[in-house]
Every structure is written in structure tokens, then in C-alpha cells.
Design goal:
Pfam families: RTA1
Transmembrane segments: 18-40, 52-71, 91-116, 128-149, 176-196, 216-234, 254-273
Strand content: under 5%
CATH architecture of the largest domain: Up-down Bundle
Number of helices: 9
InterPro entries: RTA1
CATH topology of the largest domain: Rhopdopsin 7-helix transmembrane proteins
Number of strands: 2
Subcellular location: Membrane
Keywords: Membrane, Transmembrane, Transmembrane helix
Shape: globular
Helix content: over 70%
Strand order of the largest sheet: 1-2
Distance between the termini: 115 Å
Amino acid sequence: MGFDCASYDFTSPDSTSTFLYCPSFPAAALFAVLFGLSTITHIVQAFCYGKLRLSWVIILGSAWETIAFGLRTAATQKPLSDGLGIPSVILIYLAPLLVNAFAYMVLGRMVWYYLVAKRVCRIGATRLTVIFVWLDIIAFLVQLAGASLTTGHSEADATPEAKADSARLQQIGLNIYMGGIGFQLFWILVFSGVAWRFRVKAVRGVDLQRPTSWRVLLAVLYFTLFMIGVRIIFRLVEFSQGIYDATLTTHEVFFYVLEAAPMLIACVTWNVFHPGRFLVGPESEFPHLSRQAKKAKKAEKKRLTAEKKTQKAQLKMERRRGGEVENMERGQSPLMGVELQ
């Protein structure tokens, strides 16, 4: 006799399932296929447009979503086994960060490609990308730590003390994860302000070297950030309600409408409006330095730093000597600090 999913109480604290509802096989399979098609399209586009250095992160993000929903599809057949459910949940939690990082990388290329000064908000295009990607990495690590704790649970035959400890650990994990996505949302808002500053400079046209196509790409960037924001707000509201007795956590439809669908739309939107269609030519990518060139640049930076230190030391010595001469001209001993009789 097979497992009766409909009659099982998934919301019970004694449940050993990763899910809080009877998971749908058709829905999971559908999203696995759709994310898979988006991933394959991104791979093809990366090579066709010559944008692998830019597109690898969106490829990885959509691939994680594909794997996550593939595992979820398999887990629907064994909903009480966490061997498939836990990695699926973790990948679903973390994949949006890669899609987010792609938006950061796209704006950096836009600043480099469209603006003559190649900077916005007094930040260079390459540094802008590095700053926000590192902030995304920090959010990734925090969310990974939280997700790892959230997905753990006690066994059905565990003692009451063990179950209480497990529930407490899950709540700590939720708090950490919520902090991570809150951190992510904050920097998305800051980044949106930077993108708006780019728009202001582009509209004025004073610093614009390529007056076409930036509007479409910027609109797509804002739209995908909005989709990520919808997903983050859903998670914040969901987890703030608790684990076992919240409407958002115990009904699968909210997961697909407010988590899976926004991320799929974001990935597919980048398929339709791929940056490679708009960022064309050698100026569309950051200059790629060889290892020797990077070493030479680093050595030159050290040399300039050493020169500045030497110049500062020489200037300090000259000022000191000038002060001694001035004291002597006044008839004062440079050593004793008293007037000579």
C-alpha cells in the first residue's frame, strides 16, 4: 500500500517531512522543465553573444533552480524522506542570490559601455560591480548558514527535549535567514538608487557615449530586481508568521506564485532581453588583464605607494630643517630651545 499523502499531517511537529503540505508532482516537474529550458537558452546565448564572462552567474543561478525543482519533483514521491527535500530547499533559498548578482554585473557593464567617464556616484564601473557582488556574497553566506539550520528537524521517535532543541534551532536558522534576505533587500534598494543615478546621467546625455538601447536594458534590470524583491518580501512575511501554523508556509500555492514564478520570470526575462543584444563590441566588457599584466600593475601600484611615502618623509624632513633654520635666525638654540646670550 502506497503512502497516503492527503491524510498525513505535514504541519505536525512530529512530522519528518521537509514539506508542510502535500507537495505537487506536476507543479514541481513543470518548473523543473521551464527552469531547465531557461538554463539551456542562457548557455547558448552566452556563447552566441560572446558573454560567458558575464553570463556564467545567471547560468549557475538558473541551473540551481533547475536542480532544486528536479529534486523537489523526486521528493514529491517520497515526501517523508529529507534526503531530496533538504538540498532542494537550500538551493531554492540560495539561487535567487545568483540572479541578483547578475543584475549587479549588468549595471557595471552598462556604466562601462554607455558612460564616457565610466563611473557613477563617483564609483568606477569595475569597482561598482566588485562592491555589490561582494555584498551579495556576504548575503549568500548568511542565508546559507540560516538555511542549513532551518532545514534540520528531529526524528519522530526523538525525546521531547530533543524536539524542543530542534525547534529552537530551526527558529534560530529562520532568524538568521531573515537577516540575510533583509540585508540583501537593503542593498537592492541602494543599488536601485545607483541605477537611477545612471539613468539621470544617461537622460541628460552629457556623459553618454552611446545614446541607444540603454533604456530597455535598464527597464529589464529594474523589472528583474522587482521580481527578486517580491520573492524576498514573501519570505520575510512567511517566516515572520512562524513555521507550523502560518498560511503562507502551509499552502503550496503561495510558494509557486510568490517564490518560483517570480524567479522563473526573472530568468526568462534575461533570456528575452539578453544583455548581449545591447552590449556589443570590445567596449562592452571590462578589459581582461593577463596574469603578467596584473602582476605588473600590482608592482607599479606598490612602486607608486613607496614613492609617495618617500616624498612625504622628505617633505617632513624639509619642514623640520626649515623650522630649525628659522629658530637659529631668531637667535634660539635648536637643541635647547633657549635664547643664546
